[in-house]
Amino acid sequence: MYWKVKHKPLLLVVWAIALMGFACDSGLKIFRKAPPKAPLNPYLELFIQDYVQFFESEMERTQLPGAALAIVWDSTVVFSKGFGVKSVGSRDSVDEHTVFRLGSLSKGFAGILTAMLAEEGTLAFDDPVVRYVPEFTLRSGEQTQRVRIRHLLSHSAGLPYHTFTNLIEAGYDIPGIIARLKEVKLNGKEGEVFSYQNAAFSVIEEVIKASTGRRYPELLQERIFRPVGMYDASASYEAILVSPNKAYPHEGYDSTWTRVEFTPKFYNAVAAGGVNASISDMGKWLVLLLGGRPELAGPAVLDTVFSPQLKTNSDRRFFKEWLVEKEVYYGYGWRILNTPEDTIVYHGGYVNSFKGEIALHRRDRIGVCVLMNGAGSMAGTVIPGFFERYRVYADSIRTSR
Questions:
Q1: CA-only gyration radius of the chain, Å
Q2: Average pLDDT, rounded, for the chain
Q3: Is the CB of residue 98 less than 8 Å from the CB of residue 68?
Q4: Cα gap 351→320, rounded to integer Å
Q5: Residue 167: DSSP 8-state
Q6: pLDDT tens, 68-113?
Q7: What's the CA gap between 68 and 255, in Å, rounded?
Q8: DSSP class of residue 41?
Q9: How far apart are CA 141 and CA 139, in angstroms?
Q10: What angle do CA 386, 58, 346 make, to 5 degrees?
């Protein structure tokens, strides 16, 4: 008894230490301090403040219901935030994990996944499509035999602009569309004419299935979403319907927006436009695209995907004024914008009244993604606005790295 009384303070200390250890093991945050964040480059911080102010003013100007923004610099997500609301008239705010539809931003995943498989020797960009999909038949038998995987992913198989996108929207599956390609009059030789596609692009799903024995959405999860940490991402209509944290699509244009329903369109062509993701996901995706995950996608994969394949200067619907002095090319699922000063990799996406924009400057390792639940004029300003402001701070950011 005397010993217990005499050493009571010591027992209390031992008990407290043990309790703290138990609390930490149990994940009780009261006993755990988050590690301090490293300070940002001061000029980068000024740039982010400048751009976010512009971004918020654009949301105010267009009255866009909701959006999300991620900025990555030097393999780090330096800004990630939701703005506005998931549905017009509600108070349910967009956050980092709110899921949006990506539309044609999905094409970038197809390019990267194909390059991963090519690096492993599972397939090659110069393999004939018919090696994997014997049913693939164009009007010209000779051209059918000559079309390579690279032509699918660079929109240069020789088919007219948006061939059978209407069939995708009508719900046809890709094998059903492939069976009808022979009906279409070709508009050029493979590899020589850029003509944007959704149906032909999505034939890559059948190529990948034949070469791996796995369905394309399964491989997206296994090779990209899970390893990258894109835990909100998915590739099906059912997945976005059951998501508890999703933005809703809105029709309208700058000041008048009406919420509409989700549609299943393009989930039958995931490679072209069927990916769902949050801005948290897209920040991590940008890290990979900027070379920050070399164990998943090294320089050889990225250099391949971002290599210009065809000049597309006739296709200037995107940022007409901003592209005046730029040479515009297409790689594998990505647009390549070249100027004497820099090269910017870009893609936009639209589906079911959702709009997305993504762009990155590989040399400076900076990138941006914007997801929006309505397609207004803001979609045409967020990427030019980003790089116009970045140019002001770029030299100071580089020298203070």
A1: 24
A2: 90
A3: yes
A4: 21
A5: H
A6: 999 999 999 999 999 999 999 999 999 999 999 999 999 999 999 9
A7: 18
A8: P
A9: 6
A10: 35
Is the CB of residue 111 less than 8 Å from the CB of residue 305? yes
Query: Exposed, middle or buried by CB within 10 Å (0-12, 13-18, 19+), for 50?
Result: middle
Question: Mean of the pLDDT values across residues 8-31?
Answer: 39
Please state, in angstroms and as integers, the Cα–Cα distance from residue 151 to each residue in 220, 321, 358, 398, following that order: 21, 29, 23, 37
User: Is 7 within the bounds of a domain?
Assistant: no
User: What pLDDT is recorded for position 36?
Assistant: 52
Residue with tokens 């110069």: 126
Interval 166-190 mean pLDDT: 97
Kindly give, in sequence order, each residue whose CB lies less than 8 Å from that of residue 13, ignoring residues fewer than 6 positions away. Answer: none
- How far apart CA 172 and CA 354 sit, in angstroms, is 22
Q: What local confidence, expressed as pLDDT, does residue 296 receive?
A: 98
Summary count for the chain: helices (H), strands (E): 17, 12
Q: Is 5 contained in some domain?
A: no
What is the model's pLDDT at position 39? Answer: 66
**Domains held by the chain: number:** 1
In degrees and rounded to multiples of 5, residue 78 shows phi and psi of -95, -10
d(CA 305, CA 372): 26
Query: 228 with 293: CB under 8 angstroms?
Result: yes
SS3 at position 81 = strand
Please give the full DSSP string across 265-294, using - where no structure is assigned: TTTTSHHHH--EEEHHHHHHHHHHHTTS-T
Give the Å distances, CA to CA, from 127 to 115, 232, 331, 333: 13, 34, 17, 18
Residue 150 has what pLDDT?
98
Question: Is 24 contained in some domain?
Answer: no
Q: What is the pLDDT of residue 19?
A: 39
Q: Within a domain: residue 28?
A: no
Confidence of residue 399 (pLDDT cuts 50, 70, 90): confident
Assign 326 a pLDDT band (cuts: 50, 70, 90).
Answer: confident
Q: Which element (helix H / strand E) includes 328?
A: strand 327-330
CATH number (domain holding residue 73)? 3.40.710.10
Backbone angles phi, psi at 146, to 5 degrees: -85, -20
Range of the domain at 212: 42-399
Better-predicted residue by pLDDT, 400 or 144 = 144
pLDDT at 37: 57
Place of tokens 């979403």: 225
